[in-house]
Design goal:
It contains ten helices and 13 strands. The protein is of the alpha/beta class. The longest helix is centred in the N-terminal third of the chain and has 30 residues.
């Protein structure tokens, strides 16, 4: 099988159903075709790929190791086809006005909804697909055209993409209202001694800097809680510990039981908009760039 055709996709569909049910008769019933049609399709597929997929044992088919590997590949193919079908339906409904946006978790819960709201104001007919990934995953997703624009933490390695810095800010320390540090004007690194620290459980430039400083200065914590960045503010509000975090994330996730304090030494954050270079002159990119400034000013 040197190329993927409509017929080979049909064969894969029959193979997938056959693999899941082990009998040609049940496969035929599920797919609404004849049992002989299932057998012919399987024989042709085995001939095209050059190896057997099933061992025949009475009325059942026993999958070979090669069939198990092929089944995993076919599942991935079917998922891609489902995504393509979804895109076609969106194009039919909205034309080319479908825009795919992806963001890091730290900007996803307040900043991005405000930004998407501005995009909708610019074009009320815009159909937006929004998701959340890590910076490295976002770069790969933009490079492979899974998304149109992404919002990442700098630095990132993406020479093939346009990278525009949109926000620079400094980390803050968040503490529960009843925590001893709540009375401090500013939280210094040494003040974390004996605290339970809540940190992101995913690669995080600022968190890595903080943990490096803690190790370098021999700060002894009482414990460390690693969590998704979306839950860090909530964990702090419930008294689990203190956190050093991006202030935009704090403003995105509004909690009454936490206090925000300046943190020393400075830990800097830089966020960027990335997209394929051919999008550079797109009007929507200009709207996004202008809106990022507007949203940041609202948050500050």
């Amino acid at each position: 099988m040197t190329e993927l055709t409509i017929n080979s996709i049909k064969s894969f569909t029959i193979f997938k159903t056959l693999f899941e049910n082990s009998t040609a008769s049940k496969t035929a019933l599920i797919l609404g075709i004849t049992q002989s049609g299932v057998s012919r399709s399987l024989s042709l597929l085995e001939k095209n790929i050059g190896f057997p997929l099933f061992l025949r044992e009475k009325n059942r088919l026993i999958a070979t190791p090669e069939a198990k590997e092929l089944y995993r590949e076919v599942l991935r193919l079917m998922q891609t086809l489902d995504e393509t079908r979804h895109s076609i339906l969106a194009l039919r409904e909205f034309g080319a006005q479908r825009f795919r946006v992806v963001s890091i978790p730290g900007l996803a819960f307040g900043y991005m909804p405000q930004l998407i709201s501005e995009m909708i104001k610019f074009n009320p007919k815009l159909n937006i697909y929004f998701d959340i990934l890590s910076s490295n995953e976002i770069v790969q997703a933009i490079e492979t055209d899974l998304f149109d624009v992404g919002f990442v933490t700098l630095p990132v390695k993406c020479e093939q993409l346009e990278v525009i810095e949109i926000v620079k800010t400094q980390a803050v320390c968040i503490v529960p209202k009843d925590h001893p540090l709540a009375n401090y004007q500013e939280i210094n690194l040494i003040d974390l001694q004996g605290c339970n620290l809540v940190v992101a459980n995913q690669p995080n430039l600022a968190a890595d800097q903080l943990l490096h400083l803690i190790e370098k200065h021999n700060i002894v914590l009482s414990g460390r809680t690693e969590a998704n960045i979306a839950s860090i503010c909530s964990l702090v509000s419930y008294g689990v510990g203190v956190a050093v975090i991006n202030p935009i994330t704090v403003s995105d996730l509004d909690y009454d039981n936490i206090i925000v304090k300046p943190f020393n030494p400075e830990i800097n954050y830089s966020f960027a908009l990335i997209f394929k270079k051919h999008w550079h002159k797109n009007k929507l990119i200009d709207v996004i760039r202008q809106s990022t400034k507007k949203v940041y000013l609202q948050d500050n």
